[in-house]
Write a structure and sequence with these properties.
Number of helices: 8
Oligomer: single chain
Order of helices and strands: HHHHHHHH
Number of strands: 0
Helix content: over 70%
Distance between the termini: 56 Å
């Protein structure tokens, strides 16, 4: 396993390395709630569109394209709303249950199509990480605490997906995302619990 990781790292392309660095920058800046996270994330995702497509992960390629669009929205929304000033909020349980039902149905439909019409490597896992990450990205832009829990779940699956397709550096990026997402959850949770500053 370690030999496979080292071999994958040796074969890392410059484009993959840049995408990983920008992805890490996005995650760290998102934890800090600065709008510049969206710039780093958007550029990194644009690179990953091509890499995921070449790795026969079409849903991941589409997801990265969505991230590029969400980067534009996120930058605009956080610039307008002032993400640091916007309080961290939560989503009701009912919304989560409905979202999971929709994610599972969409994943079943898209994975069936991918399995029959494409050479997708992991149709269902590719699908569920894609649909779930769409929601997680929107929750991040809305400054919802639970976005980090979604990221932890889908980043863990993505580690396996990219590693199995030989993109070891990207797999390590998603492993780093797991750590950063955990820190992000704790940081945002604490900021939500912190008393409001007295005027």
């Amino acid at each position: 396993m370690i030999e496979a990781i080292l071999a994958g790292l040796r074969n890392t392309s410059p484009a993959e390395a840049v995408a990983v660095i920008l992805g890490l920058a996005y995650s760290i800046l998102a934890v800090l709630r600065t709008r510049w996270c969206w710039v780093a994330g958007g550029i990194g995702s644009a690179i990953l569109v091509v890499l995921a497509w070449e790795a026969k992960l079409p849903m991941q390629a589409g997801l990265q394209g969505y991230y590029v669009a969400m980067a534009v929205y996120g930058f605009w929304h956080w610039s307008k709303a002032g993400a640091k000033d916007k309080p961290v909020s939560t989503w009701p349980l009912r919304a989560h249950l409905i979202s999971w039902a929709v994610i599972i149905v969409l994943s079943a439909l898209s994975s069936r199509y991918l399995a029959s019409e494409t050479q997708a490597a992991w149709p269902f896992l590719d699908s569920i990480t894609t649909w779930g990450s769409l929601l997680a990205t929107w929750l991040t832009a809305q400054v919802k605490l639970e976005n980090w829990l979604y990221w932890i779940t889908f980043d863990a699956i993505a580690v396996f997906l990219f590693a199995s397709q030989g993109l070891m550096f990207v797999a390590l990026l998603f492993a780093a995302y797991l750590v950063i997402s955990t820190v992000g959850f704790v940081t945002w949770f604490r900021s939500r619990r912190a008393p409001a500053p007295s005027g």
